[in-house]
UniProtKB/TrEMBL annotation, chain A:
Pfam families according to UniProt: 4HBT (PF03061), MeaB (PF03308)
Keyword Nucleotide-binding: yes
NCBIfam families, sorted: lao, unchar_dom_1
Record gene name: meaB
Family note: Belongs to the SIMIBI class G3E GTPase family. ArgK/MeaB subfamily.
Keywords on record: Chaperone, GTP-binding, Hydrolase, Nucleotide-binding
Originating organism: Diaphorobacter ruginosibacter
Highest taxon above the source species: Bacteria
GO molecular function, one term: GTPase activity
Domain AAA+ ATPase stretches: 44-169
Family annotation (PANTHER family): LAO_AO TRANSPORT SYSTEM ATPASE (PTHR43087:SF1), LYSINE/ARGININE/ORNITHINE TRANSPORT SYSTEM KINASE (PTHR43087)
Protein's name according to its UniProt entry: Methylmalonyl Co-A mutase-associated GTPase MeaB
Automatic annotation (TrEMBL), chain B:
Cofactor: adenosylcob(III)alamin
Listed PANTHER family: METHYLMALONYL-COA MUTASE, LARGE SUBUNIT, METHYLMALONYL-COA MUTASE, MITOCHONDRIAL-RELATED
MF (Gene Ontology): cobalamin binding; isomerase activity; metal ion binding
Name of the featured protein: Cobalamin B12-binding domain-containing protein
Keyword Isomerase: yes
Residue span(s) of domain B12-binding: 5-132
UniProt-listed PROSITE patterns: B12_BINDING
Short name of one Pfam family: B12-binding
Length: 395, 140
């Protein structure tokens, strides 16, 4: 998957997003490039996990939540995970059909993922897909887990807000004090609240919460009839008031650094000539990629060493100029471990070893994207001047 | 890196509600190791296009038992307009011989008639998935 398509996905192009998700599921070089590209842009979306037993009403609840969030003008992406067959690897992904009424709305993007043998209630690529939706600008990302048993709690790691769905009539009040899935909830939703047992289920949950040590941060217990919409407004209000909203692992200054360094590389004639592309940046680091083409190949049929140094030098140059002061290379050495063929994708990751007022020390690791093979290592010393980088004046 | 399973949408467009066939096909493809996005009948063409876009489907299987196949050329146009001409479309069900040529002309890859062997459907979907991924690679 080429970089242009990755950036189209980040701009919200629906077909590009669909294909990028497949590339993330595949793993490999494209997945790496997508992760790098999304890294600088994520951290904005509110990620809501919905988990609970099979047939508990998760999909119907998600459909009702989508409606409530859309009414408030928010765009919504959904990751719906269904199990793969342990015998054949096949899967029937049927959850999105219950979210059917929103399918003509461009403010909603639903993607079904098969778990492909991954345990824990999600799919291997789920975290990457969440990051992609976030980077593509969706306000809310809802993750619906596979129908979960008592200990499929992996969603805890990825969601800002965890909704545990408890349909009525699944057990006595002892179930409510067991360890596991009930402990991870930020919000309990008793679904199918028009069924006779629902009040008892809600009161069992409240009784369980009354035994908790921390009585200051108790999750609310809400009763919802998702098919009619009863109780959905209350749930959406609770979701919108969650304090953690949008604070998910955003890297300080990363977006600003990425924007600035994109400007620098766009003005760099050598980068344009040789095909270097910026995929990620933060203060003091930069990651580039390039595809080795015919024009990079030496008489020996391998990538020319000078191209590798230029590639690493570009990454180093961006990393050391990411602090707003002009820095220039005064000394650099490269060691090469592995020869590179035409067609290989290379990644150069430059990072700061140390930096004082006048001198900075940087390291660049160049590796092959397809298998992470180590290609070359560059160490460089830069001299820091007391004025901004030249390219910064043009903005 | 293991090959990604084929992703197949099994759906029905139009007014016909007889979906036993699409369920049989869904279960067959699942048992052949594919990822099947199953929908109930009565889908709109725009919905199928959105589904194919978001799910990055390799193949769309349309079941048609009551003349719904006549609107399949419209679906093919809608897929082309959405930039999805690489997605392979197969049709299964009751399609009179005189209409089959029209469907193939509109871009449908294969029409299956009553009595078609399930193994043949599986073999075809695997081949069409390979074809679609090759087309996709060329356009990337």
């Amino acid at each position: 998957m080429d970089t242009a398509l990755i950036f189209k996905a980040l701009e919200g192009d629906r077909r590009a997003i669909g294909r990028a998700i497949s590339a993330l599921e595949d793993g490999g070089a494209s997945a790496y490039a997508i992760r790098q590209a999304t890294a600088a842009r994520q951290g904005r979306a509110h990620v809501i996990g919905v988990t609970g037993p099979p047939g508990g009403g998760k999909s119907t609840l998600v459909s009702a939540m989508i409606r409530g969030l859309r009414e408030r003008g928010m765009t919504v992406a959904v990751v719906a995970v269904d199990p793969s067959s342990p015998f054949t690897g096949g899967a029937v992904l049927g959850d999105r059909i219950r979210m059917g009424e929103r399918q003509s709305d461009d403010g909603v993007f639903i993607r079904s993922l098969a778990s492909r043998g991954h345990l824990g209630g999600l799919a291997t690529a789920a975290a990457d897909v969440i990051d992609l939706f976030d980077a593509a600008g969706f306000d809310v990302v809802i993750v619906e887990t596979v129908g979960a048993g008592q200990s499929e709690v992996e969603i805890t790691r990825f969601a800002d807000t965890r909704i545990v769905v408890c349909p009525p009539g699944l057990g006595d009040d002892v179930q409510a004090i067991k360890a596991g899935i009930l402990e991870i909830a930020d919000v309990f939703v008793v679904t199918k609240a028009d069924l006779p047992d629902s009040r008892k289920t809600a009161s069992d949950l409240r009784a369980m919460l009354a035994l908790r040590k921390d009585q200051c941060h108790l999750p609310p217990v809400l009763q919802v009839v998702a098919t009619s919409g009863d109780g959905v407004d209350k749930l959406v209000e609770v979701l919108l008031q969650r304090p953690e909203r949008g604070k998910r692992h955003a890297v300080d200054g990363a977006q600003e650094a990425y924007r600035q360094l994109s400007g620098f590389i766009a003005q760099d004639n050598v980068a344009n000539l040789l095909g270097f592309e910026l995929v990620a940046a933060a203060k003091g680091t930069a990651t580039l990629r390039m595809k080795v083409q015919r024009k990079h190949i030496n008489f020996n049929g391998k990538c020319h060493g000078g191209i590798l140094f230029s590639f690493g030098d570009m990454a180093l140059g961006l990393a050391c100029n990411s602090h707003g002061k002009l820095a220039t290379l005064v000394d650099g050495q490269m060691s090469i471990s592995t020869a590179v063929d035409e067609g290989d994708w290379l990644i150069a990751h430059a990072s700061e070893v140390s930096r004082s007022r006048k001198i900075g020390s940087y390291q660049v690791r160049i590796f092959r994207a397809s298998d992470n093979a180590h290609i070359a290592l560059i160490h460089g010393t830069v001299y820091v001047l007391d004025r901004p980088p030249v390219g910064a004046n043009d903005e | 890196m293991a090959a990604r399973p084929p992703r197949v949408i099994v759906t029905k467009i139009g007014f016909d509600g007889h979906d036993r066939g699409s369920r049989v096909i869904s279960a067959t493809l699942r048992d052949a190791g594919m990822e099947v996005i199953y929908t109930p009948p009565w889908q709109e063409i725009a919905t199928v296009v959105k589904l194919a876009t978001e799910e990055d489907a390799d193949v769309i299987g349309i079941s048609s038992l009551a003349t719904d196949h006549l609107i399949i050329p419209q679906l093919m146009d809608a897929l082309r307009n959405a930039g999805l001409s690489d997605v392979q479309v197969i049709v299964g069900g009751i399609v009179p011989a005189k209409d089959e040529a029209r469907l193939l002309e509109a871009g449908v890859a294969r029409v299956f008639h009553p009595g078609a062997a399930l193994d043949d459907v599986v073999t075809d979907v695997i081949a069409l998935t390979a074809k679609r991924r090759q087309l996709q690679g060329e356009s990337a």
